[in-house]
Amino acid sequence: xxxxxxxxxxxxxxxxxxxxxxxxxxxxxxxxxxxxxxxxxxxxxxxxxxxxxxxxxxxxxxxxxxxxxxxxxxxxxxxxxxxxxxxxxxxxxxxxxxxxxxxxxxxxxxxxxxxxxxxxxxxxxxxxxxxxxxxxxxxxxxxxxxxxxxxxxxxxxxxxxxxxxxxxxxxxxxxxxxxxxxxxxxxxxxxxxxxxxxxxxxxxxxxxxxxxxxxxxxxxxxxxxxxxxxxxxxxxxxxxxxxxxxxxxxxxxxxxxxxxxxxxxxxxxxxxxxxxxxxxxxxxxxxxxxxxxxxxxxxxxxxxxxxxxxxxxxxxxxxxxxxxxxxxxxxxxxxxxxxxxxxxxxxxxxxxxxxxxxxxxxxxxxxxxxxxxxxxxxxxxxxxxxxxxxxxxxxxxxxxxxxxxxxxxxxxxxxxxxxxxxxxxxxxxxxxxxxxxxxxxxxxxxxxxxxxxxxxxxxxxxxxxxxxxxxxxxxxxxxxxxxxxxxxxxxxxxxxxxxxxxxxxxxxxxxxxxxxxxxxxxxxxxxxxxxxxxxxxxxxxxxxxxxxxxxxxxxxxxxxxxxxxxxxxxxxxxxxxxxxxxxxxxxxxxxxxxxxxxxxxxxxxxxxxxxxxxxxxxxxxxxxxxxxxxxxxxxxxxxxxxxxxxxxxxxxxxxxxxxxxxxxxxxxxxxxxxxxxxxxxxxxxxxxxxxxxxxxxxxxxxxxxxxxxxxxxxxxxxxxxxxxx
Length: 725
Hints:
Blueprint: E1 13-15, H1 20-24, H2 28-53, H3 68-75, E2 83-85, H4 91-101, H5 116-129, H6 164-177, E3 183-188, H7 195-206, E4 211-217, E5 220-221, E6 224-225, H8 238-241, E7 245-250, H9 254-269, E8 275-280, H10 301-308, H11 312-322, H12 328-349, E9 351-352, E10 359-360, E11 399-403, H13 404-418, E12 422-426, H14 441-446, E13 451-453, H15 458-470, E14 474-479, H16 489-496, H17 499-502, E15 512-517, H18 532-536, E16 542-544, H19 549-559, E17 566-571, E18 578-582, E19 596-599, E20 604-608, H20 612-623, E21 627-631, H21 642-652, E22 655-658, H22 668-679, E23 688-690, H23 701-706, H24 711-722
Parallel strand pairs: 1-7, 2-3, 3-4, 4-8, 7-8, 12-13, 12-14, 14-15, 15-17, 16-17, 20-21, 20-22, 22-23
Antiparallel strand pairs: 5-6, 9-10, 11-18, 19-21
Helix pairs in contact: 2-3, 2-4, 2-11, 2-12, 3-4, 3-9, 4-5, 5-12, 6-7, 6-15, 7-15, 13-19, 15-16, 20-24
């Protein structure tokens, strides 16, 4: 007979409940501090809603009124060096972390006023929410994107679930760099159902990273109740499901949250891996703004009134009064103190319109419109002093033939030997003698602890790399096939590409993505794409596409020294080809943003990328057409070598753009517009664009070939553009 044995999770899962005795066990001054912080959040959020109603907050105002205990209880166990991030509703967490970073250990609000640094934290956060220059991100982040590295606020994200991989990355950086810190990534019940959440939790559990996944379960993702979208609304269960501890607590009770977080910290300190903490709470207002959910019809007034009876400030006041710690005068003093700080911040950020009582923002507080594009990429001066070389700088006897993949792998391991902050992340990178391409073989032999296996979770581990980069590592991420960049597109586009500019620049985002492309190998439509054009949509990316070992080594070395993200597009066709590299010198660099003329000519200019570079050289040789062929090599939106291109166009007056990729996913469409704008008077012929077909490549060998840009297509274009020259 079939026997059924009940199974249980391998990790603990429990709920914390507190009573008056647990409050009494907390030191009196700590309880007063917790209460005053909740009151500060409440008054701050009310002021933000007032400013929004007056039209002085551009964008949404996601108030956290009702969720103060979750933020304050969580922050009560964090030290200055511990990191947090959050999502679009993060005012309460960020405000508490900012003020705590400026608060002296002996501060007691009953006997002292806020210091100037504490008040300034309130002022600067309010300024950021209003989009003003004094804000932490100079007004670029606003309400949903906030960062202050000095206070341990590594960066919030408006993408639901988008911040969670970053928190795992902070913890990974702490682990690799030997820092004694923990990271807390805050999110809501809606984000708990995101794929990136599970990917991140799994990676954190696999490596037992010091990170707390803090879920504020306020039951509603905008208007959708959690019971409507999952059969298991107990979110703390997600930890045990993946092999680590889950703790549920009362998110309206600040001591309950404090105890849950204290347990979580102890679990991490004991080396038992990450923890998920679920704080059951309630936001008193709608998703954004000052109206209630019942006004929109998705909650009842009765439900809202029941939760108001358990308002975290009301509950705390009852406890503190019962314990004899504060009376009505004490509560009033705290309220007056924090209200004055909040009002002072608002007064500094507004003025009255002459002849009325209407507030407005002083003109001097707005950022300059001329600064709108500042900081998308690092200032070029950051790369000053690099030892830049081209192959022509070496004598013939100084060069040796080496396979592309061998030279690339050796360059990576040499860089890792010189820089202990470089790590490698990717699928199978720790197996198969160096991953599916053999690229990580040398690194794996020398630095096995820094070559980290990742699950098949591109969005998750790409986001982990971003978080690690924000905390001092230089991650090198391998994307096994170019099409998989679309799986990671949220972190590539919304994360890595934007954070440096969005948070006010001035900090590094040194992520290198190695992207393998193999359109010719018969892997079909979902494994054959070249995503260069995807990266080009985001000006925060450098993109390089080396076609020989020498260029690969030089560009990789530069990428690993850059404080900007760099995508390296690697065409598999080159991997086993041999090329010349210096025998003894492998630490040279090639500047980002520099194309190269690989064949001089006067009949036409061919702007070629990747596999089309050697094809263009071959076609020019076979046809005898005196084409000038430029290996574009560096193809980012802001780092295309237009001076070299325009110089060539002025000489030849004819342009062909040659790409192997399908016609709808090309760089050339952008380049044509640029050339028309920049060099129209130099053109004697329409610009010709050689690409693949409309379709993505498919498996059939005949159709695969037909789907790609080819020598035949380029030959036809070169003959057409020069026939009447």
